[in-house]
Amino acid sequence: NRLIQNPESRRAISITWFPVQDITADEPPCLQLVQCVIDKNNHLNLICVFRSNDMLSAWGQNAYGLAHLQKFICEQINLKRKNAEEKVSQGWLETISISAHMYFHRDQLELNLFLEKIKTGELFQSFQRR
């Protein structure tokens, strides 16, 4: 409701961390904070802060899920607006990873294939003009 009442608000923040419980938890949430910002072009931008982010196995899934959350928030804002204001649309999605990492023992095959493609230039071949 905050973004419906005040689209310029910088207080549309959700925090997943629950200190009393998470300080001793074996699996505290990796996603810590999500902030929604509507810009002057009526785009809903999403800023997400991760305490820890497995870049090979989880980053893509997290970004995909957050993009769908962003879409859902846009839809809810557009449904609840009473006047004929311009609709809010999805803007950019920013993820900030405080501890971005990979697990070499688990992912060494994929990492070695990736590094080999970098060495041969094969990885970036599709971006080059022919």
Molecular structure report:
With 130 residues, the protein is of the alpha/beta class. It has one domain: Thymidylate synthase/dCMP hydroxymethylase domain (Thymidylate Synthase, Chain A, 2-Layer Sandwich), CATH 3.30.572.10. It has 4 helices and 6 strands, in the order αβαβββαββα. Strands 1-2-3-5 form a 4-stranded mixed β-sheet, covered by helices on one side. The protein has a two-stranded parallel ribbon with strand order 4-6. A hairpin with a 4-residue loop joins strand 2 and strand 3. The chain is flat.
Task: Provide tags for this entry.
130 residues; Thymidylate Synthase, Chain A; four-stranded mixed sheet; two-stranded parallel ribbon; 4 helices
Helix count from the secondary structure assignment? 4
**Secondary-structure-derived class:** alpha/beta
SSE run: HEHEEEHEEH
Strand order of the largest sheet: 1-2-3-5
Distance between the ends: 51 Å
Low-confidence stretches: none
How much β-strand is present in the residues?
15-25%
Count of distinct strands: 6
CATH architecture: 2-Layer Sandwich
- What is the number of independent domains? 1
Shape by Cα distribution:
flat
| CATH fold category name | Thymidylate Synthase, Chain A
Helix content: 25-40%
Instruction: Give Rg in angstroms.
Output: 19 Å
Major beta sheet summary: 4 strands, mixed
Name of the CATH class: Alpha Beta
Give the CATH superfamily: Thymidylate synthase/dCMP hydroxymethylase domain
- What is the average of the pLDDT values? 89
